[in-house]
From TrEMBL:
The chain crosses the membrane at residues 90-111, 123-140, 160-185, 209-227, 239-259, 312-336, 348-372, 419-437. It is a multi-pass membrane protein. This is Chromate transporter. Pfam families: Chromate_transp. GO terms for molecular function: chromate transmembrane transporter activity. InterPro entries: Chr_Tranpt_l_chain, Chromate_transpt. It comes from the Bacteria. The keyword Transmembrane helix applies. Belongs to the chromate ion transporter (CHR) (TC 2.A.51) family. Keywords: Cell membrane, Membrane, Transmembrane, Transmembrane helix. Its main location: membrane.
Amino acid sequence: MTVIDTPRQEAPAVPFSEALAVWLKVGFLSFGGAAGQIAMLHTIIVEEKKWLDEKRFLHALNYCTLLPGPEAQQLATYVGWLLHGVRGGLTAGLLFVLPGALVVLGLSMLYVTARGLPVVDGIFFGIKAAVLVIVVQAVIKMAKRVGDATALKLVMAGSFLAILLLQAPYPLVVLAAALTGALIAPPPPAGAPPPAPAAGRWSRLGRDLVVWGAVWWAPVAIAALLLGGGHILTQLGLFFSKLAVLTFGGAYALLVWLAQAAVEQKGWLSAAEMADGLGLAETKPGPTILVTQFVGFLAAYRLPAPFDAMTAGIIGAALTTWVTFAPSFLFIFAGAPFVEDLRHNRRLAGALTGITAAVVGVILYLALWFGLHVFFGQVGSLSFGPVSVPTVTLAALDWKAAVLAAIAFLLAFRLKVGLITLIGVMAALGVAVKLTLG
């Protein structure tokens, strides 16, 4: 089978039924976060099926790393689009999300109905320790992607301190890092000129913006018309739509904004519940960013009128998932011709590098935030003018949580156990602790 060699060539003739079977397989087996999911896509698409060659796969991946949102899901959408147009992109993108979304919905329903049982409480108690390790691993992986440039290290440190000490809003941190990265961007290397822009891209852009913008916003508009702008469903649609266009750096960076807004400002859920949600999102196939669905479920479940609590929770979960992933289809279908051109813009490349550096600092703050709440429960603050330092009471230390966290770090960094094994072991240990020590 002939593979694609350049961005402008036609896709190979792959039967849609064959592609559908592959996307179903990917949807049910895409564990391991974005890195693992991209590796699996590479194995299937490049090595096994040979639908794309190495160069073309990396070219598609470069498109998706420029975009906000879940890059692995966007990569699947983009490959599906190359093979079968919009039909293929929708199929690949939706199936990448749907299995995991159904699992998270089921676990969310279990979470609100079965808490209080020692076994269920123990599972989530143990998972919190695993989550802390997972976030620390994310910091290390992201830091390696940034490199050793002093300016970028300063961006990392500045982002961490801005959120920790000044409670700077996450979007502002990202914007400042992007501007810094653009200003310090090195000149491009000498080489071939960028490819010519695709023909008809402006008319296609206008059409796609209208169509996919309507697809994205229709559920939010319906909620606003039927329930009002202040209803929790409308608020969820607006809030997570904003997150969808600012989620550079993946789910862990997004969690900082969630912690600031959903936990500290809106009170939709607690810090401990946020850790539980991330644990749930790590145990199923699909993007980790599905943690947003858990937040949407709990928020609507607790403010259900005029529905019953479970119905409201299910609608909230569905709406949140919709507005989290619908923008990705707009970005891929409408933006691909323009992203191709922008890849050769050194200022944009520098801005993205700056954002990556900032995300490392943001995720480091997330690790600290999770750790303080897991170990101490309540976290206070001590203010010095605009600077605020988090404080804890040492007597409130949960030694059982600290011991479980130590075991989780040992398993992950010394024994090198995999993600699913780590979560399973820690969940089992959490159950043992709750059943024996309370």
